[in-house]
């Protein structure tokens, strides 16, 4: 007979298996004696969505992970599950890595001896589904397809808004009319025969007739219809193909237009056959990749634009295009002179009479955009003047390093001396240079594992993991010595630094920063007093 211990282990094994196997955003929460929930396990989907790893959240409450406001909201969802010992469903709009998402969550209590000891949280991101439903609804309401419901004699029982928009008549004017009265006399017989065919259970598709409502001219439409045996009615759609009919007379003109578009597009375009061999390229392709048509005509398109490490990726895209997929992606390709190009890549199949004849490769050069994005990413975590990390990065790293494995942790806060004097007496150019010099000294004095940041204005902050008080004092001495050795006219290099050491895991880094600031102000005061003396 299975023991309680074995049963518990089996349950935990099942939960662990669920966490690994499910695509849902899943977390296993422990329920403490204080009624608070704390993270026990999270799966890969949870990490992918939140950017958090298990070691960052394990043993922490939602408040500790997400802050008071969002954390308390999350914790509040668990209360009825724990108190009433029942599965709870809720929907929430959450900010996930800067993206607003709609999430549906199911909280399932795990009960032992009539007490909820854990809660399994399984969430599904419904954002894309909701957006798709909204898009479909908008598409349906704006559809140009004319739809109607007919009785067996052809009288209209219901009709959609597309008819109203197409023929500029009121909805009520169309009801109870016989659809056959709108059909061109030359097409009436074929329409009636098609209706009889549908009434016998066959589906009618692409029957082309001309129709006219009111005083407007006849228009070509393509009919499709089926019968609903249960309702004893016909469902029919009429697609306006009048413009398509006229377009057939304009094929030559459109071909000329497409040739002009091909030649003058700002995107690089290559036309290749169904063996992937280059047939033609436009001028923008030449500009992006540096090849003339004579150099590459008849060559495999992937040989032209790829190096070995990108060849497999490019071949998969080309094969997908030849399978009929419309490809839109981004990737790296190489020009004739081996320059790396960041590109938006589109691929589409070329068919003639429903037979694949080749494809188009369309390349938009986004190298400058990618370089700008990289620069913005750099600037978002760096101080523009000094090149050091900024406060946002410091605070992000402080959260990451606030773990037992990095204790003891030392925090230093420094305030540059003589900056106001430099700005007032010698100008902000000298003041800026003073800040830059101090930045280099701090970098030189610290280790690679330390985080040196400009805190703001004339203040700097340093985060030193696995550093006790004596080690920190050594770094302070290096800062002082490097300031004394660096010659900078007309202002003496100096920075007042306060520090605080976290020696216990339970201590808060925020309180540590506050202590370091207080020590910095004391150091600043002592320096001013010594100058007065």
Describe this structure in words.
It is a single chain. With 533 residues, the chain is an alpha+beta fold. It folds into four domains: 15-130, Beta-Lactamase; 143-247, Beta-Lactamase, CATH 3.30.450; 264-369, Beta-Lactamase (2-Layer Sandwich); 381-532, Alpha-Beta Plaits (2-Layer Sandwich). It has helices spanning 4-21, 44-50, 54-57, 62-66, 68-84, 127-141, 161-167, 171-174, 185-199, 242-248, 251-264, 283-289, 293-296, 301-305, 308-322, 367-380, 391-401, 419-426, 428-445, 469-485, 509-532; strands at 25-31, 37-42, 88-96, 99-112, 115-125, 146-150, 156-159, 204-211, 219-228, 233-240, 268-273, 278-281, 327-334, 340-352, 355-365, 409-416, 451-456, 459-464, 495-502. The strands form four sheets. The protein has a five-stranded antiparallel beta sheet with strand order 2-1-5-4-3, with helices on both faces. Strand 9 and strand 10 (233-240) form a beta hairpin. It is extended and about 115 Å long.
Q: Using DSSP, what is the number of strands?
A: 19
Based on Cα principal axes, name the global outline.
extended
* Main sheet properties: 5 strands, antiparallel
Q: Kindly report the average pLDDT value.
A: 87
């Amino acid at each position: 007979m299975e023991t309680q211990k074995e049963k518990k282990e089996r349950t935990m094994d099942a939960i662990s298996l669920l966490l690994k196997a499910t695509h849902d955003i899943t977390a296993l929460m422990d329920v403490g004696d204080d009624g608070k929930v704390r993270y026990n396990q999270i799966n890969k989907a949870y990490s992918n969505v939140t950017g958090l790893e298990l070691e960052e959240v394990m043993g922490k409450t939602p408040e500790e992970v997400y802050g008071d406001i969002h954390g308390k909201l999350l914790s509040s969802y668990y209360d009825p599950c724990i108190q009433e010992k029942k599965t709870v469903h809720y929907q929430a709009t959450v900010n996930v890595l800067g993206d607003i998402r709609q999430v549906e969550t199911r909280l399932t209590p795990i009960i032992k001896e009539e007490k909820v000891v854990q809660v399994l949280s399984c969430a599904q991101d419904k954002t894309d589904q909701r957006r798709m439903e909204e898009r479909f609804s908008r598409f349906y309401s704006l559809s140009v397809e004319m739809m109607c419901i007919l009785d067996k004699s052809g009288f209209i029982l219901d009709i959609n808004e597309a008819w109203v928009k197409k023929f500029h008549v009121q909805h009520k004017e169309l009801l109870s009319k016989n659809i056959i009265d709108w059909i061109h006399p030359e097409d009436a017989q074929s329409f009636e025969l098609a209706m009889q065919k549908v009434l016998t259970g066959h589906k009618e598709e692409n029957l082309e007739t001309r129709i006219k409502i009111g005083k407007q001219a006849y228009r070509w439409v393509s009919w499709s219809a089926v019968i609903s045996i249960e309702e004893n009615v016909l469902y029919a759609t009429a697609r306006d193909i009048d413009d398509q009919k006229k377009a057939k007379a304009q094929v030559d003109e459109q071909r000329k237009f497409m040739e002009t578009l091909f030649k003058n597009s700002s995107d690089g375009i290559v036309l290749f056959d169904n063996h992937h061999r280059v047939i033609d390229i436009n001028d923008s392709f030449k500009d992006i990749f540096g090849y003339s048509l004579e150099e590459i005509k008849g060559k495999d398109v992937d040989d032209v634009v790829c190096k070995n490490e990108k060849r497999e990726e490019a071949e998969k895209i080309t094969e997908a295009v030849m399978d009929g997929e419309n490809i839109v992606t981004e990737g790296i390709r190489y020009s004739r002179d081996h320059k790396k190009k960041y590109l938006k890549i589109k691929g589409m199949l070329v068919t003639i009479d429903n037979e694949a004849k080749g494809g188009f490769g369309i390349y938009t050069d986004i190298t400058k955009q990618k370089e700008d994005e990289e620069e913005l990413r750099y600037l978002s975590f760096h101080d523009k003047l000094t090149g050091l990390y900024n406060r946002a990065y410091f605070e992000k790293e402080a959260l990451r390093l606030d773990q037992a494995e990095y204790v003891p942790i030392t925090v230093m806060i420094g305030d540059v001396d003589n900056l106001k004097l430099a700005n007032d007496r010698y100008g902000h150019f000298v003041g800026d240079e003073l800040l830059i010099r101090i930045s280099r000294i701090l970098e030189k004095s610290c280790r690679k594992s330390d985080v040196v940041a400009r805190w703001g204005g004339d203040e700097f902050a340093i985060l030193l993991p696995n550093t006790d008080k004596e080690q920190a004092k050594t770094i302070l001495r290096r800062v002082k010595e490097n300031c004394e050795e660096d010659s900078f006219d007309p202002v003496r290099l100096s920075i007042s630094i306060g520090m605080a050491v976290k020696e216990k895991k339970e201590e808060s880094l925020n309180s540590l920063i506050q202590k370091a600031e207080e020590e910095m102000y004391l150091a600043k005061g002592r320096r001013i007093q010594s100058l007065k003396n």
